[in-house]
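--- STAGE predict ---
source: upstream dedup step, 1 unique chain passed
mode: sequence only
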Amino acid sequence: MTDGSLAAAPTTRVVYSERLWVPLWYWVAALVVAGLLSAEVHMGSPGVLTWLPYVVLVPFAVWGALHLSRTRVEITDGPEGRVLHVGKAHLPVAVVSRVAVVPPSAKSAALGRQLDPAAFVQHRTWVKPMVIVVLDDPEDSTPYWLVSSRHPEKVADALVPPTA
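--- STAGE serialize ---
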């Protein structure tokens, strides 16, 4: 039996979600290296050491690729408004002044000589385009967020809340 005085849980709607998976060749390279290292130990050791490296190194290679792929770029609508989530960090869209796409050709400049040391950067080398989210928050010293995204146009469109 439910109590009528309890408020319903606030709902959060996902506007955009993307997981920054590593490319297929990272998986292949990790498994090949794990297999070669295991084979080296296998060839030189009898008994339990013949299979133990395979049991240890191959799952470790899979874990490494999964660990590198853990970053999510997500935009949600909830009771507190629209929010950008990148990994464990989150940013209310109310403090965003503008959003722009950083093409792959401008990525090195954005991460190099033009990078503000106070900026929040979530960079993945295997994802070429990025999105820059400029902030207008007097209480925050972070001037902008620079985030890797395979679809920066979709992220930029989702960060602009719909007009009512």
